[in-house]
């Protein structure tokens, strides 16, 4: 059997702060998307669907970062990458085609409504995942 | 909602946040005094929720009821959940988690106040 590499926990040390911030965004994005879809989905189906997608990504990233193991590390990497791509794409779209984005989503205008934390968070997440990469020599 | 009270709650949460980050800078794990500070903020949050409930029963209405209830419930659970998460690994980072929780509370109280004043989302 191949030896299981020793993975530094992503939820330890500074990672605990990262997980906490991700959890806050997971709850915020889920609630916001929930309210938008429940009350006025017809007004702007695409942004609200993106809002819900963002919520799923945050929830997934939170869980993956909070857990340990190579698989969860990979899930976290995927979630943070998708999140970065999402915030950049939606950021550009919301500025280029403001009419299609009548209401703020977490990723609108690169997350301006959330102090640009949605833009910074995936970058910090990816840097943290590089620090805790399973292929590295254990500490 | 009574604006002076909301401002007082938000400012006390911010004060405890600053206190947390000072302790982080001095490399300290969470201490008893800081936890007492968090408990005091939580008491203020509960008082605010009771106040809001009384005003709602009296017939006053926020800009968006589901959003208001969401923020109100959120404002009550952030500090307990944050504290549980922080104390599971008592380190300098735990103190930072408490600071983040306090900043979150002040943002939530601010949003709560905005929604009470008529903001929709």
From TrEMBL, chain A:
Domain of life: Bacteria
Bilayer-spanning residue ranges: 48-66, 75-101, 113-129
Keyword Transmembrane helix: yes
Keywords: Membrane, Transmembrane, Transmembrane helix
Name of the protein: Integral membrane protein
Top-level taxonomy: Bacteria, Bacillati, Actinomycetota, Actinomycetes, Pseudonocardiales
Automatic annotation (TrEMBL), chain B:
UniProt keywords, alphabetically: Membrane, Transmembrane, Transmembrane helix
Keyword presence, Membrane: yes
Protein name stated in the entry: Integral membrane protein
Lineage top rank: taxon: Bacteria
Lineage, broadest ranks: Bacteria, Bacillati, Actinomycetota, Actinomycetes, Pseudonocardiales
Segments passing through the bilayer: 6-26, 33-56, 68-88, 95-113
Organism: Prauserella shujinwangii
